[in-house]
Design a protein that fits this description.
Length: 147
């Protein structure tokens, strides 16, 4: 046992690891749609098998279910149903605007628990939310200003 490590400073980051049905579709969602960038990857025989994506100080990992051989056991349906990940950010409204501009279907932002909240589902059913602190009253729904 390492007596030097202090519990409050040892753990530094949690990184969700999503198993996905189609890694290329997931990359279109996270990279092209939400602005994540690929930091690391694992390629086998010319095929992307795993990657680490980042957006600001947050990260997540994707790996495609094997489709062949003994390991080819992708479950039926959307594997992410029931899993939600929340990213705390500086401006959830900016993420909403950019994601919808890029073709992502996102939930209209609203204020809950003192934060703007917007969410969307990825191709595998994982729910992705972005939140940012605000002084706007609770339950306010976002409406774009015209002009």
């Amino acid at each position: 046992m390492n007596l030097e490590a202090k519990p409050g400073t040892n753990v530094q980051q949690a990184v969700p690891f999503f198993m996905v049905a189609d890694i290329e579709a997931s990359l279109r969602f996270y990279v092209d749609g939400l602005g994540f960038s690929m930091k690391w990857n694992w390629i086998v025989e010319g095929k992307l098998r795993w990657c680490w994506l980042e957006n600001g100080g947050a990260a997540l990992m994707l790996q495609e279910f094997p489709k062949e051989g003994e390991e080819g056991r992708a479950p039926e349906g959307k594997v992410g149903v029931g899993v939600s990940i929340y990213f705390i950010c500086q401006d959830a409204l900016a993420i909403y605007r950019e994601a919808t501009r890029r073709g992502i279907k996102a939930q209209r932002p609203f204020v809950g628990n003192g934060m703007w909240v917007t969410g969307m589902s990825d191709p595998d059913g994982y729910e992705i939310f972005f939140e940012s602190y605000t002084a706007v009253p609770e339950e306010t729904e976002f409406a774009e200003q015209e002009g």
